[in-house]
Amino acid sequence: MRRARTARVRRTGADVGAVSLRVVSSNFAVARSAPLIVVADGDAELRDRVHDFLSERGYRVESASDAESAAQLVVAQDAAVLIADRALRTPDGRDLLSLARERAPATPQIALSGEGAPPGTDPGVVRTLGKPLSLYELVDAVRLAQDCGDGFHGWMHRMSLIDVLQMYHHATQSLVLHIRGEVEGAIALKLGELIHAEHGDQVGMPALVALLTAKRGQLFTTALDHAQRTLVGPFDHVLLDGLRSLDERRGGNDEPPAFELDVVADDWPFEEHDEPDPLDEAALRAWLAEHAPGAGVWRVDPVAARVVRLDEAGAHPEIELASPPGALGWAYELAELGDPTWQRVELTNGPIAIAIVRVAGVVIAFARLISGEAMQRRFHVESARLQRWLTDHVAARAAGGGA
Amino acid sequence: MTSRDQQFQSAVVDGGALGAAAIAIATREVVAGFQHADLASPALLDLLLGTTRPVGPLTQACGGTPPSAARELLIAGAARSLFCAVLERGELIVMAAPATMSVALGWALVRTLVATQGGA
Q: Which of A55, A125, A183, B120 is the most exposed place for a label (fewest CB within 10 A)?
């Protein structure tokens, strides 16, 4: 049974359970070119393996066999990450991790622990890896450490999964949230929007719903390396859809929910989703050909930062020639900054006017060369008409009538 | 209130707008206006006038930061529309109007405001 919800989702820990959280908050820093990694370990073979492995992946690597020289390297060369054996100490007994933290507090650390040693929770240590060392885990940890330049990291508890998702949404973070415990999987966010979920063989909404059933477990985050997209729509809508499905599953009947009947991993190709497209692109092209001929037209996916041209490339070369690069993105950023409820933005920039229309998650941009007042007025009229047509079209398709 | 302020007041009241201002681009001072509080945030003005550059993922995907300045901007929201016109004489005209106002009327009002000069 469906249950109405308010747009802003808020659930308590008692409702959806609590998880302990390995949390890393960052501002999605731009990676520096050839960042320096300092590796400090008494084991020469391990140092060489790490050196070769990370060097092959584009990092500069400096090795040290003792604590003092490692600390000097970190400070003198402004290391991006320090990888250090937790047991490494200076002759006067100070351990390297605290020494480096004192001299270079901004350098994130990865601690290497002896076999069977418990994971540490030292401040500054982004991740503790046990020996024998997995180099693939190490390179993941290095990426994570680089993503930790700003923000806090550490251990938290009594957070529900929804609390954490909302926190990252409000902070517009880009990362992958891994869930471990009774239900395992991962949820990816890009700029605060839910873009992907996976659970076993499932991806997309079925996976998200399965993960939302978790009442307890552990969470940890990693940097977002790629942006596979299996969830579509604004954060609140996606989360509400997931919770609604969860409600229906818990609704008292023992029948499996409908989404489990037809979900097979192989039937869920990359970039596709379970919701029908609210826009018939062919209908849009036909409308534009009749009502706004000569305009350049694009469909915009702001979450994936993707722009797909809908009119024929090259058909209006003056637009390519006159359109300043990035103006479409500029218009979008102005709209987001100026009014979060924006439905249409028009930006005249040099000889080009760009309009972006947003209706129920469908974002369409079109551009026209402006050669005078009359053309400018025509552009404003076309922009308004496009908004009206798109509103009617999306509503008609949602009602099942097409347009 | 200057005579130009009065012209702004007349245009806003008679035209059915919510507020308007002429802003000196160099100093960001309001040189004339009526009901101009909270018309546009400093961050929006910075982004519009090129003091800060757009750096979002969509801008990057579209080829990077535009090299030239904006001339006109309209942001139509659920409750209000914001009209901005960057003038060669170093002024920015900003006007807010109800969302129900037609875009054509909005720009006509902005043209009226652009035509007001000096007379302080």
A: B120
The SS3 of residue A369 is: strand
Express each pLDDT in A315-374 by its tens digit.
555 555 455 567 888 899 999 999 989 999 999 887 788 999 999 889 999 888 777 777
Taking contacts as CB-CB distances below 8 angstroms, the residues of chain B near A340 are 77
Compute the radius of gyration of chain B from its Cα atoms: 15
d(CA A207, CA A189): 14
- Cβ contacts (< 8 Å) between A307 and chain B: which residues? 58, 61-62
- Whether the complex's predicted ipTM is more than 0.90 is answered with yes
Q: CA–CA separation, A265 vs A263, rounded Å?
A: 7
**B-chain residues within 8 Å CB-CB of A326?**
54, 59-60, 62-66
Q: Cβ distance A110 to A80 under 8 Å?
A: no
What pLDDT digit, counting tens, does each position of B9-33 carry?
999 999 999 999 999 999 999 999 9
Nearest to A122 by CA among A110, A131, A104, A134: A110
Nearest to A124 by CA among A173, A186, A71: A71
Pair of tokens at residue A253: 């009947």
The helix or strand, by DSSP H or E, that contains position B3, with its residue range, turns out to be helix B3-15
CA–CA gap between residue A152 and residue A44 (Å, rounded): 33
Closest CB from B70, B78, B104 relative to A380: B104
Phi, psi of A73 (to 5 degrees): -60, -45
What pTM did the predictor assign?
0.49
Is there a contact between B73 and A337 if contact means CB atoms under 8 Å apart? no
Rounded Cα gap, residues A78 and A105, in angstroms: 11
Cα A257 to Cα B17: distance, rounded to the nearest angstrom: 52
Query: Which of B71, B75, B88 to mutate: most A Cβ within 10 Å?
Result: B75
